[in-house]
Write a structure and sequence with these properties.
Number of domains: 2
Low-confidence stretches: none
Structural class: mainly alpha
Largest sheet: none
Distance between the termini: 24 Å
Order of helices and strands: HHHHHH
Shape: globular
Radius of gyration: 17 Å
Strand content: under 5%
Oligomer: single chain
Length: 130
């Protein structure tokens, strides 16, 4: 979509992060807040695009919206909402055909992916809504 995007992120608990990252220097970087990680990501992306296109200034408008996902049902609703959004905005007739969607990655286990496909599929399968 040309004017916005949706990003659904899962954050490990602090205890799990501490267990996974034993190097103290790395651990201090990992334990920063998710907002800090996203800020670094957007800043790096903006700098890269600005350099590539010989431009300056911000790429993203404010405000960013963040919502805590506090239940499996809300998580499922967000997955559906995110995948249906390009259809709602008339970018495609079917969410299955939208090339900038993660939908196909959930179905193709032959591809490497950073997505937690198993969790998403299990939640939908358990609810009978996949």
């Amino acid at each position: 979509m040309s004017n916005h995007f949706h990003f659904l992120e899962s954050v490990r608990s602090v205890a799990e992060q501490k267990r996974l990252f034993t190097d103290s220097n790395l651990k201090s970087k990992v334990l920063r807040s998710p907002s800090r990680h996203l800020s670094n990501f957007f800043n790096s992306y903006t700098q890269s695009i600005n350099k590539e296109r010989n431009r300056t200034g911000a790429l993203f408008q404010r405000p960013f919206k963040r919502k805590e996902v506090d239940s499996d049902e809300y998580f499922r609703k967000l997955i559906v909402y995110i995948h249906q959004n390009p259809v709602h905005h008339n970018f495609t007739k079917s969410f299955k055909d939208y090339s900038y969607s993660s939908y196909s990655h959930f179905l193709n286990f032959d591809e490497d992916s950073f997505l937690n496909r198993e969790k998403v599929i299990e939640l939908f399968w358990r609810s009978g809504k996949f």
